Amino acid sequence: MSYTFHFGQIVGDIPYLVGGGLVSLEIALLAFCGGMVLGTLGAIGTSFGGPLVRRIVRAYVVFFTNTPQLVQIFFLFFVLPQVGILLGPFQAVLLGMTINAGAYLTEIQRAGFGSVRQTELDAAAVLGMSTWQSVRYVILPHVVSTLFAPLSNHFILMVLGTSMAAVFGVEELTGRAYNINAQTFRSLEIFSVTAVLYVAITLLASAVLVVLGRTLFRVRMRIV
Amino acid sequence: MQNFFTFYNAEFLLDAMLTTLLLSALGCGIGLVVGFGLAVVRRTRGAASAPLRVVAILFVELFRRIPFLVTLFFTFYATQIAGFDASVFSIATISVCVIATAFLSEIVRAGLDSVHPNQWDSAAVANFTLMQTLRIVVIPQAWKVVLPPAFGFFLLFIKDSALASQIGLVELTYAGRELNNRGFAPILSFGSILLLYFALSYPLTLLGRRLEARLAGSRHH
Fold it and tell me: Residue B3 domain-assigned?
């Protein structure tokens, strides 16, 4: 093996890669927010909905947690144009990641909702609170501290999951690494720098989440 | 338009499904063995094994934070440059082994920690070597803690193996894209592989839940 590492050739492209890291974080953040909306709706549907709603949410969760995210995005990417919905790669990836995240976050939030004592929910019902009011004033304050750790864990997984956006041509970290590789052919150097950047981004995101948890939600976590 | 539901297509998809299953099972199996080794190395306390410990910790922390696609590409290019004429399946398996080792060594470490320190100490008092301690005292108690999350990881990996299609391995996702390229409607080709992944994953998920209920229940003492 006579390969010499030439990091000098790609040093100039490192800011481009870091920009790609920011795009990855952006995708993960947007998909997480969308997934949280879907997840909360799903958890409310499971806890307060009738048998039909529960069955639909259950089918949604079971289907999207047992199939790969990549294939889900492929399906959206190729099938939606045929029914007339024309989405760019970025939007298609975002939609796919949001729906996938919604399924996992529904599961996480359902566990959280289930941990609230029945007496609290009964008291809320006795006071005449609507579903939305009991979620907002009774359930959420109880579960926010419990759910913060699993939710932030899932966010870190989503940041790593954004790398599959490169398959669709989205210019996030892995996509940009692939572009530079196509130009310079310094594959080992580029992908090792990309790997280091991903480790740095996930450590940074974990640290920010730990600080956020300690200050806002009084949750003591370690940077895992 | 040609008929999608032919024997030839079914054979193609089933073959791809077998490749997916084999890739995940082989990778996670080897990952469990090597991960076990890493977990044991992390538990040693001597100064002589300190460099090994550092390497083990670095390996685990690094590869848990790198996306599978990046690991795949890196392994792909590294084997090409090193001159190994490896098949795409071997390259994908190596990547899966690396990632599975990192994640499973954490799971095994939790399992080893779940065995009460008294057990480890009693084995030391009885003058067991490390291998004897593991074989006679620790593994019989730890495997119940290790197996459910390890099985859960294997399930997760069946879905992650879809990314191996990006380096050209003919597994289920690649088969779906291939059928799409051959002109079949995308809703049929991708819909069928979604259903096949579901058919692969859901029964195993139920099995994993059964496993967890049985093994976790029997640990109450």
Answer: no
Chain A hits for B159, CB-CB cut-off 8 Å, are 66-69
pLDDT for residue A165: 94
Task: Enumerate the domain spans of chain A.
Answer: 7-216
* Residue B2 within a domain: no
pLDDT digits (tens, 9 = 90+) for A25-70: 999 999 999 999 999 999 999 988 899 999 999 999 999 999 999 9
Of B98, B99, B109, B100, the C-alpha closest to B44 is B109
Burial of B12 (0-12, 13-18, 19+ CB in 10 A): middle
The whole-number pLDDT of residue A178 equals 93
Rounded to 10 degrees, the C-alpha dihedral B48/B49/B54/B59 comes to 150
Torsion sign across C-alpha atoms B67, B72, B75, B78: negative
Domain A7-216 in CATH 1.10.3720.10? The answer is: yes
Find, in chain A, the residue whose alpha carbon is nearest to that of B64: A199
- Give the count of domains, chain B: 1
Q: Which amino acid, residue B105?
A: S
pLDDT at A190: 92
A174-224 pLDDT, tens digit per residue, is: 999 999 999 988 889 999 999 999 999 999 999 999 999 888 877 777 776
Taking an 8 Å cut-off on Cβ atoms, the answer to whether B177 and A74 are in contact is yes
Measured between alpha carbons, how far is B185 from B94 in angstroms, rounded to an integer?
Answer: 34
Q: What does the mean pLDDT of chain A come to? A: 91
Instruction: Say if CB B87 and CB B118 are below 8 A apart.
Output: no
The mean pLDDT of B79-84, rounded to a whole number, is: 85
Q: Is the pLDDT of residue B216 over 90?
A: no
Chain B interface includes A33 (CB < 8 A): no
Q: Which domain holds residue B18?
A: 8-216
Query: What does the alpha-carbon distance between residue A208 and residue A214 come to, in Å, rounded to a whole number?
Result: 10
Is-contact A160 B65, C-beta < 8 A? yes
Which candidate from B61, B65, B173 shows the least CB-CB separation from A198? B65
- B20: tokens are 């997916």
Which of helix, strand or coil describes residue A85? coil
Judging contacts by C-beta atoms under 8 Å, the chain A residues touching residue B68 are 163
Q: Is the pLDDT of residue B221 over 60?
A: no
The CA distance from A205 to the nearest CA of chain B, in Å, is: 11
Which residues are CB-contacts of A131 (< 8 A; sequence separation ≥ 6)?
A: A44, A48
